[in-house]
Amino acid sequence: MTQVFAYIVHKNGVADDTALELIAAAKKLQADAQVTAIVTGSGSDLDAVCTEVAASYNEVLKIDNENLAYPNAEIIRALLLKILPSDGILLVPHTTFGMDLGPGLSIKLDAAFVADVIDFEGLDASILKLVRQEYSGQVSTHVSCDISLGAVINIRPGAFAPDESKAASGNVVDKSSEAQGLTAKRTYLETVVAEVGDVDITKSDVLVSVGRGIEDEDNIEIAQDLAEALGADVSCSRPIVDSKWLEKSRQVGTSGQTVKPKVYIACGISGSFQHLGGIKGSPFMIAINKNSKAPIFQVADVGVVADILEFIPEFADKVKEMK
Question: How far is CA 221 from its chain centroid?
Fold first, then answer.
């Protein structure tokens, strides 16, 4: 049986939502997989994360070192080289950190690397079949990957429904000694928190988010009308900020804000991993896009194929009628 490992991202003593998504991905990869979580960091928060993760993983490797207080891919890459077996599979969230860590690690391990994976289609001997996306999600690519020498696989956040069964009761094994003597040429300085604008979308329960499909700055008014009818806030994807139609504080994504609403209405947004990476907590997602092949539909709970400039005003009117 192939050994499967998952790198756990966490903050302030709480595991990221991707921790449960990686378990689901591992079980899709191999139904009876015994999955080992790797948790790195420093301080008392690390123990809390390990305890939380142990409820879902068969084993948790805890590595506590002051140099790991901030996830430095250069140090973690060297650490994983000492921990991972030559034929193991490592699952990593496909985030900016995952892209920093994964490619270089696969080269050092002489293992396969596949980025932005959204599904597994089967494992036959040493050949793993999986699905990833290219061209900002416009094309799904079916890939056959030789994992006889192991693999590093970046999983797109949100692609797999979180496995919340928490029936593992795994053991926590302290591997902190493996981090002794590891250093990096780059060091963490500080985290610069983005300024909160007139609306803090990170605290919003309902978001009406607009993308390229809004076409013109003046059309943002129809999204604001819908948001007002729903008691929601307006957010956006990066192109809207780049066009200076909305302030940076309203941008959702890996280069913007991380949000955790109960309902997310994506209007004219294609659904790139950079945008979806900023949405946490598996909200009820409604996608409205005139392109029926837009990647956003693959993660949406409800998909509407329509021109948002025509659909949103009608949607707002119906909401107002219901009220």
Answer: 30
